[in-house]
Automatic annotation (TrEMBL), chains A, B, C, D, E:
Membrane topology label: Multi-pass membrane protein
Protein name per its UniProtKB record: Magnesium transport protein CorA
Primary location recorded for the protein, binned into one broad class: membrane
Protein role: Mediates influx of magnesium ions.
Lineage of producing organism: Bacteria, Pseudomonadati, Bacteroidota, Flavobacteriia, Flavobacteriales
Pfam families: CorA (PF01544)
Top-rank taxon: Bacteria
Length: 363, 363, 363, 363, 363
């Protein structure tokens, strides 16, 4: 019931997705997400090795004003449903309309596009929310010369670690350029994939236990849900490997050689993640197999009980039926110990059957 | 019944397909579609940034006359079963006979062929008709210097959005060349794939619900139909990715650098579509698995009922059978409370069995 | 029975295949087919734009004599079991012994080999014979400067169309060189693959109907046969794509640029064929799945009938058994309406069971 | 039983394999095969176009002495378990220790290694022995300037044909260099793969027959054995294709251009073999599927018999039970024709059930 | 039970894995293994062709002091949970922080990273412990100019052979450089994979026996465990092939040409291992299939027993029931030999049924 409801809620949204966009010109900024109506909140963090300031600008012009400063600035825009606002930012930073379209298109697959003055990237943040569900959040990032623009749907905790390191001067982040910040954000996203995969692993191992002990149809359904979840995660995570390796290979001066060493590390993690997903996929398929084999096992057990009961008592009932006949001439009926003889035969038969089934290993 | 009929209608058409063409020389123009007999309707839309005119030319010469104009012209030919007419157009625009053959061959797989003066493309338009069926329509397009020729089987609504944008000067289409129009049409086709895939997704999710609740053989059949549909869609959609990327890589001056940025966007969408198809394929395979597991589940349930009923009542019937025997000497029959004792034994047995089955979790 | 016999006939032939050849030097001409003993029939068709002559040469020298003429000659050799004859032809045309070996090796997989003065190709002609079986015929072709040699096992109808076009001057074949003839023959072979695939499609769709209505074990066997057929066809057809694309890429002057445009068309068709085979493969696998699911469905139905009958009548029989006991003291037996009460209980039970099964959706 | 024993015999051998080698330095010559203790037998065949001599050398020095001769020499060493002997030969011919290690390592996968003065190759000879089992024999070959060294485990018959051709001057082998001999030996190995595959094909087709007629568990086991055999064969045969193509591409002067034409032929055969293995793999998987479907078919049949018998006779027994009750007041019992009426009802019920099952197509 | 406990122990560890690291800067040294708290034990082995010394240095400075010596030194650090200690070593040898991070990250996938002055590699050592379980141990190695640093979690026996060869001057290890030592260690790791795979092979073959004889649900579970084990092994072993081939292709002067010949040998082994894993994977999948087929076989057998018993005795009981009815007028009851006639009919029926089942091959 609950399931049906949940699906019911999601589907109409999805259905409206493409009708919204259909027929519009490419480059039209159309928000495709589910959290419409909210206004964007902008947060600017500016830092270099010595200085650090954080503030929430009053209006767009305030944002751009800050861009002139020599420090690295991390401009975080939370809430992307206000298409006009995004358009304004785009204009000020000189972003291509196609970039703006992708910023608000929450169904955009992960990608890296290089332009002359900036590098544009779209990723999916994955994290586990309080209801223990996997949340997929669209995040777009633009690397400019001394500035990183981040567009998110919701206030996040995936980037919390990076923010913390900047504020506490921990690690080397304060001594490096905007490209290192760009890397650090990607790295934070990728690192969080591990948490999600671990969550998945946990779930699969739990199901493994249950499948073995008690294979109910609900379990089969849950296994299918896991398989679907793995498919969906794979879809969003899989391209990341290629994107990071493209950043490593780029000749764009925005990415320095120093940062590429770190990107190589992120590439490593992406590879590991892709392998894990592959393994989880195979494990979830094994789960279904296991489920089917346990099902047919249960069936075997049921059939054995039936067969044993029927095979023993149907012949005995037949014997009782014989001596329940009303023929005038049935000599056995008049034997003094006929009744006991019959009992003897029945018990012998019973024991014989038991031995037979024992031998067949059915008991 | 209905199904059988539908197949019956399609098959003969298909059977005639290749016999029609067999033995003819390559380059022979042979219409391969199902809507024979109709005459072609030509619609010409001419525009530049300032001017816009639309008209239906009287004859072939009128079409070519218009080609001389400095504006971009979109020549839309609906209805391709008139082979002579196509041959005439081909001659006027200087198209290769092989191109003409492909224009009317509705079974041609998607392709891009570059010639010296023009680029020729074949695509499949997919859309959902009013009966909620997926329609596959063959469309051929020729990009010339300031002109795009479009050959379709039926009057469409897939290109409606493009036409609308031209007429309303929305987006940048009016300010760009024929290659942008060419791109815009491809983009419209690709965008519509999303609608079709969404329709498919809907159907799969509906089936998922039903499989879980009530796995009938009809459902199995529908799942197989979905699988087949996915196969067919994949066949027509899959090559598009490569075609678009070939357009991006081409050095043909007909495609400008500006348009290539937009084509990259279309490539992105094609990639996304291919991934989706892959996922739908796996989902439809999971559906079948789910169906099978629910089937064997139902079977398990049926067998449990049988086993419980038989295991309880066959032994009880045996006991009743014992005391229905007609032996002269059966002391129990003459016990005062013999009848009640037997009832006691029977009830005890019944309760014992119930506990046994309860323990086995069969109840 | 019939099946067993058919296999029995084929197997010994096959078994003798490699023993025949084993231990011989590479380049030894050993006929590997099944139609031994026949003599070769040679047919020569010579033509250019204006002239056309056809004749059956008396002996080998007559064949070569004709080679000197300025016209294009199509030398068709039907029957390749006469190894000496093939050797003589080979000598006259200067063919490599390995080429001659491949000409008579009917198990040779499709291939294109380029030599300095000629291009050698092996293909499989597939067609449907009058018994509606798929026939695989080995055909070897040699493209020389103004001559195409064709070696076939049987008189064919696959090349009939080409012959017809030459004789009727239809299409452009009469105005072009030997390479165009070479292409036209390959094209005819590839075109015929479509007919065979269509035949297969037909068979699969027929089986689909039957599987749904009446899944007998014979059907399962037929599905497996189809799967095997698809495997076999794929084996012979799959390499063609690569061969044609190698002809397109070759720098051999025997293939002119003009003909390459047409070869590109043939490549297109090969791609389409390969895709179709892939789809038929998946469809035949789906068929088997469908079969299995319908089988277990039938089983479910059988079990339901058994369970319903047993669950209703076993308890009722038990009740009848109770009152068939012969205890001296069974008060119910002496109730005036005892018999009717029992009937009442039985009918109530019956109705209760029916409602239960109805609720479970088993009726 | 037999099976268990056979496995018992093989496993300890295998288990000792790697412990033997573990911890030794790379390049240590450690015989890994199963035929220990035998001494090596050396046979030298020397020939050119005119001369031919064969002899068994007394000691190692005799072997090397012969190497000086201008003729081609084929030095055949049968028995490779004498590690010292192999080491001595290696020293005389200047072979790398790693080569010697591979010569005696019977588990080495097929490979081609090029060194400055020689080319080293390892292959698996496959043949059918008298017990109709597939035998895998390790063979190592070294091509030197005018000499081919062959190391085998057992006296073979795979190379018999080559030896025969040399002795009888048949084919071109006597007129060519050592590289042609090298090719001829590889060709002999590859040709024998066809015999083995044919054997496999035979077995699969036999099983196909049996699966259809009588699917016993033994058959399932045999199918699995076939699948395993195909896996094993694939493992040893699959790399050959690549090795031969590497020989074709090598720039090593030891392989002449003339011989490469023949190697291309061997490559063709390797491709064909790989395709066949692929097909046998799919066929063996189909076999298992077929087996499963026939199994569930048998089950269906069993269940139908049970259901028909039970559904007919349980209700009839119930009716008989009714009139076996001992109520004082059962009017029907006293009807004059009551007994016949009951028979009538029973027969009607019987016929009704038969019609019902007939309609369901269960009879 | 035991299983559940084991999982219980592992899971919390795993869960803590990524939370530990999350949010820290890349390059932070965080031990990720399970053996925390132990101190590192350093063992230094220094050797050249003539000299050999082994000692356990008192402190870090002692380690570096030794680095100045002209001999090859193998510095073995066992125990990597002391992050400060690792940091100090890193500083002294000038290692990049990312390298240090990977040294202690026991979940790092195998990799080779080349830096200017050193080559860094991570591998997984696999071995069978005394409980016959497969142990995965993280090992990191750094190749410097005349020194190899090895970081392990536990004191090992995988490298025992190498140590032994150095001490006994066996093989060529004492005469070669640090790169040969580096290779020898990798080779030892790879060689040990064979032992693990053999162990796996053993287990699979044992299961094969059991599946055939007695397919219990525990067996199904064990098969799934094997499948999972194969997946896990594949994950750690699979990348090794690529890493070794990268070492072969590197232009880094740290790896000499001589050593590359040996690396090629190690590459060969990696290829063989990957093929074996692939085969074990397919074998374990076959096992499951076999299990399922034997299960349904057992079911068939059970059903046959039930069907035979029921089909024989239900009709006989019906006959007995007939003559147990109490109708006043039942002429057969009064026949002198009625009782014997009925027995005759029953026996005839019994024999008939037996013949029927015999014919159906069910007995």
């Amino acid at each position: 019931m609950a399931r049906r409801k949940r699906l019911g809620k999601i589907l109409p949204k999805k259905a409206s997705k493409f009708q919204k966009k259909m027929g519009k010109a490419p480059g039209t900024i159309t928000y495709m997400g589910r959290r419409e109506g909210g206004t964007s909140v902008v947060n600017i963090l500016e830092y270099n090795e010595n200085v650090l300031s954080e503030h929430i600008p009053g209006d767009i012009d305030a944002i751009v004003a800050h861009k002139e400063l020599p420090e690295i600035s991390w401009i975080d825009i939370v809430g992307i449903s206000d298409e006009d606002f995004i358009a304004k930012i785009g204009k000020r930073f000189g972003l291509n309309p196609l970039v703006l379209e992708d910023i608000v298109d929450t169904h955009q697959r992960p990608k890296i596009d290089e332009y002359e003055d900036y590098i544009f990237g779209v990723f999916k943040m994955l994290y586990i929310n309080n209801e223990q569900e996997i949340v997929y959040e669209h995040v777009a990032m633009v690397l400019l010369e001394s500035c990183v623009l981040v567009f998110q749907e919701m206030d996040d905790d995936v980037f919390k670690g990076v923010r913390h390191r900047i504020k506490n001067k921990s690690g080397r982040i304060r001594t490096r350029g905007a490209d290192y910040l760009f890397f650090a954000l990607i790295d934070a996203i990728v690192d969080n994939y591990f948490v999600v995969l671990e969550h998945l692993n946990h779930k699969i191992e739990e199901l493994e236990e249950v499948v073995y002990d008690n294979p109910t149809p609900e379990i089969a359904h849950e296994i299918q849900m896991i398989k679907k979840e793995v498919l969906r995660i794979r879809r969003w995570i899989f391209p990341v490997k290629e994107l990071v390796s493209r950043l490593i290979d780029t000749e764009n001066p925005l990415i320095t050689k120093d940062t590429k060493v770190f990107l190589r590390d992120a590439l490593d993690h992406s590879l590991e993640i892709n392998e894990s997903i592959q393994i989880y996929r195979e494990m979830s398929m094994s789960l279904m197999e296991m489920y089917m084999s346990n099902m047919s096992n249960k069936m075997n057990e049921v059939m054995k009980v039936l067969t044993i009961m029927a095979s023993i008592f149907i012949p005995l009932t037949f014997i009782a039926g014989i001596y329940g006949m009303n023929f005038d001439h049935m000599p056995e009926l008049h034997y003094e110990n006929g009744y006991y003889y019959v009992w003897g035969v029945m018990i012998a038969l019973f024991i014989g059957m038991m031995i037979y089934f024992k031998r067949k290993n059915w008991l």
